[in-house]
Design brief:
Elements (H helix, E strand, L loop, with lengths): L7 H16 L6 E4 L2 E2 L10 H7 L8 E2 L2 E2 H13 L7 E4 L5 E2 H9 L1 H7 L14 H7 L8 H14 L2 H4 L4 H25 L17 H43 L3 H22 L3 H5 L4 H39 L6 H27 L8 H33 L3 E10 L9 E11 L2 E9 H6 L16 H16 L5 E6 H11 L2 E3 L3 E3 L4 H5 L4 H17 L5 H13 L3 E5 L2 H9 L9 H4 L2 E9 L9 E11 L4 E12 L6 E10 L3 E7 L2 E2 L5 E5 L2 E10 L3 E14 L6 E5 L8 E8 L2 E8 L4 E4 L1
Parallel strand pairs: 1-5, 2-4, 7-10, 14-23, 15-24
Antiparallel strand pairs: 3-6, 7-8, 8-9, 10-13, 11-12, 14-17, 15-16, 16-22, 17-21, 18-19, 18-22, 20-21, 23-26, 24-25
């Protein structure tokens, strides 16, 4: 019996619950409730308020802290859902006790006390150890007004007096409650049976086939379609039109169809502007704070796409001006070549600036909110990169041509056979004199190099004029030779190799060469390997005629290809005019070992010269691995490993190798197939650089690895260290791997030497 132990049974039970929950890792709570009253309550509780509601006599001297059922449920829920409530005890009772006598007065006339705003007399509180912590921990306190709670309770029992007559167990009470609900249903059925059916008079009315609600819903959908869906459809259509027209414009530009290309751009702009105007309808969502970031980003992309169209117009106009400039170089027509090149320079510069700004803006967009757009925009950025490169290259070419073609100028075009490698490209086999006067072509004269040498009594070997790795030195030797032959000064030297001829055939189509038949990009090298230089000379003559007199719409393709060949050092140019040469040097259009940027950085330049005089250019391969270590003081040690491959099955390859490194470098070791050859390496100083040279001989169908280790005089300064690795003119794409190590930095880079490379740490 609970009462025989007072409240000890409760304390013991709470202890058992706490132990059980701890042993089984349970999330338990204990809620101690005072007496609870309300509809459907039982009367087993002995609290005085329970007796009053039941209609039993009780002492009016007592007081109660009983709570209404709603407040009790609120505490139980909060004890479970509030944070950090596990393994805690909560008390639920009125904050202040209420006299039973006052409760009896309320029960006698609850309406009157409700209207008067009853406030109980304040009594001293009973000790409730966990009530204060309950109030603060779960933010709970009784909220139901006492008068309202008593009214709701007595109203229920006045309607269900059977529940008031005798105490019931919970099971009995639940059964009685269900029976009450069933009785309600029976009463309703009986009422329906006994009540007479009322017949309503039929009234004439016009029945609408569509209800008013359906009309409103339809109008709502129309508004949504017009405000959201239709603008999105127009946006998608406009973007599709833009992409399609942009691709057409690019294709027509490459084909030299400038009018078509401009029309394509115009259609692209129209599609975008239509999409942009309808997209403005979505700003209502932005003002509502819905999809704000997404709308702003799409609006930014649309705006930059329109700017892209405008930049593309400048690029097309610049390309057309370049084409017209070349036409006027060889034709009598209104306007001059210089005017067209000036116009081209202006248009290319505008296009370049436009593309640069667009590129920067698009690359700064965060696609986290609309990731599906990332691929589309990245594709757009790729196109912009291409357009920007065309614009930059076009501007450089236009500036050089504009300056070069002023007044009277004489240039020499040098053809080199890169199958027979020399330091600046290949063996010289032909020279072409080109005279320009006020932007008009006056003379083109071609001459075989060997024939030219025979005309000079002094011992000047033109075919070996490019034995130096520094291209300005080669250009100066050619200038001296040409002056000895003709007595004329020249203003610039331009060299091309067999790779250039192959690329021009690829763009302009096969060439019929007398005595050799049809030459295309596939059979050129095969026929050139037979050693007859007349093929290359005749081929160059035909291609030069095409460029100067029949280029027409292929200017963009040819121009883009020539710029790539410049970067890959299959074409090099040197101008004896200082201003022009500064422009060329700024765009890295030749190999000048004396440039200021090379003097201020670490540098590596591997140069070969084929001294076996056999045409092995296409059969040779190279791979380079450079390991660099910096000690705590920043002293740098380099170890270069070069593997040379000879794929020719019959002929050996003998090469004089020169390696240019920073001035003051110290040779530490050299190995050939892991055997020391340091004594065979010669050290020299040239072009403000230290150099090492050695002769290497590679058998047919074999490879050879040469290693050289050296210490530079420069220091490693993190954040300011630059390594320039130069590519030799006339060579193809060679692999390059660089591994750097210092006490606080490790880095490994794998790339190629298709062009010069600059690395910064």
């Amino acid at each position: 019996d609970k009462n025989s132990y007072g409240l000890n049974w409760l304390a013991n039970l709470e202890g058992e619950i706490a132990k059980f929950s701890k042993d089984n890792n349970l999330n338990a709570r204990i809620v101690r409730l005072s007496a609870v009253f309300g509809p459907r309550m039982h009367f087993r509780e002995k609290d005085s308020i329970i007796r009053l509601i039941e209609g039993q006599e009780t002492s009016l001297e007592f007081s109660t802290r009983a709570i209404f059922i709603t407040d009790a449920i609120s505490l139980i829920i909060k004890s479970m859902l509030a944070g950090s409530t596990a393994q805690k005890i909560f008390d639920g009772s009125l904050l202040q006790p209420i006299q039973i006598s006052e409760i009896k007065q309320i029960l006698l006339d609850p309406v009157w006390y409700g209207e008067k705003g009853f406030k109980p007399t304040e009594l001293p509180p009973w000790p409730t150890p966990n009530l204060k912590s309950t109030l603060s921990h779960v933010n709970w306190e009784p909220k139901v007004n006492l008068v309202d709670a008593l009214k709701e309770t007595t109203l229920y029992f006045s309607k269900h007096p059977a529940n008031l007559n005798e105490p019931k167990s919970p099971e009995q009470f639940d059964k009685g409650w269900r029976e009450e609900e069933r009785e309600k249903g029976v009463e309703k059925k009986e009422e329906a049976i006994l009540s007479p059916v009322k017949k309503e008079k039929k009234q004439f009315s016009l029945k609408m086939p569509i209800k008013k609600e359906q009309i409103l819903v339809s109008i709502g959908w129309l508004v949504i379609f017009y405000a959201l869906i239709f603008p999105l459809i127009v946006l998608i259509f406009g973007v599709f039109t833009f992409r399609y027209s942009l691709d057409l414009a690019t294709k027509d530009l490459q084909e030299g169809e400038y009018t078509k290309s401009l029309n394509d751009v115009s259609r692209a702009k129209e599609g975008l502007k239509m999409a942009e105007s309808w997209f403005g309808a979505l700003t209502v969502f932005e003002k509502m704070g819905i999809l704000t970031t997404q709308i702003n980003e799409i609006d930014e992309i649309l705006d930059k796409s329109i700017n892209l169209s405008e930049g593309l117009e400048h690029l097309i106009l610049g390309s057309r001006a370049m084409t017209d400039g070349f036409k006027k170089l060889t034709q009598d027509s209104n306007g001059t070549t210089l005017e067209e090149f000036s116009k081209a320079s202006f248009e290319f510069e505008n296009a370049s600036g436009n593309f640069s700004k667009i590129n920067l803006a698009l690359k700064n967009i965060d696609f986290s909110t609309i990731p599906t757009l990332r691929v589309r925009v990245e594709d757009l950025i790729t196109k912009i990169d291409y357009f920007e490169r065309l614009s930059n290259n076009g501007h450089t070419a236009a500036e050089i041509l504009k300056s070069s073609f002023q007044g009277k100028k004489t240039f020499v075009l040098v053809l080199q056979n890169s199958l027979l490698l020399r330091p600046t490209g290949g063996k010289i086999i032909e020279l072409t004199q080109i005279d320009i006067e006020d932007g008009k072509l006056k003379k083109v004269a071609m001459q075989d190099a060997i024939d030219l040498e025979s005309l000079i009594k002094e011992n000047h070997s033109l075919s070996e004029a490019n034995e130096e790795a520094n291209f300005p030195t080669t250009a100066s030797k050619i200038k001296l030779f040409f002056n000895k032959l003709t007595g004329k000064e020249i203003d610039g030297v331009l060299t091309i190799d067999t790779k250039v001829l192959k690329e021009l055939i690829k763009i302009t189509g096969p060439v019929e060469v007398e005595g050799f038949g049809k030459i295309d990009e596939e059979n050129l090298l095969e026929k050139a390997l037979k050693g007859d230089n007349k093929l290359l000379v005749s081929l160059q003559k035909e291609l030069l005629n095409r460029i100067l007199f029949g280029l027409k719409g292929t200017v963009p393709k040819v121009g883009d290809s020539l710029i790539n060949l410049f970067e890959q050092k299959h074409i090099e140019v040197f101008m004896f005019d200082t201003n022009l040469e500064n422009l060329i040097e700024a765009n890295s259009l030749n190999t000048n070992l004396l440039t200021s940027n090379l003097d201020k950085s670490d540098v590596l330049f591997w140069v070969e010269s084929n001294i076996s005089n056999n045409l092995l250019g296409e059969d040779l391969g190279r791979s380079f691995k450079l390991k660099t270590e910096a000690d705590e003081k920043g002293n740098l040690t380099h170890k270069l490993s070069a593997t040379l491959i000879n794929r020719n099955p019959d002929q050996s390859y003998k090469s004089l190798v020169k390696i240019y490194v920073p001035l003051g470098s110290l040779l530490l070791d050299a190995k050939l197939e892991n055997s020391s050859v340091k004594t065979l390496v010669s050290t020299f100083s040239d072009y403000n650089k230290t150099g090492y040279s050695i002769t290497l001989d590679i058998n047919p169908k074999s490879e050879l690895t040469f290693e050289i280790e050296y210490k530079t005089g420069s220091l490693f300064n993190k954040g300011n260290y630059i390594l320039n690795v130069l590519k030799q003119a006339g060579t193809n794409n060679n692999s390059f791997e660089w591994e750097f190590k210092s006490p606080d930095l490790k880095k490994k880079i794998q790339t190629d030497l298709k062009v010069d490379k600059e690395f910064r740490l």
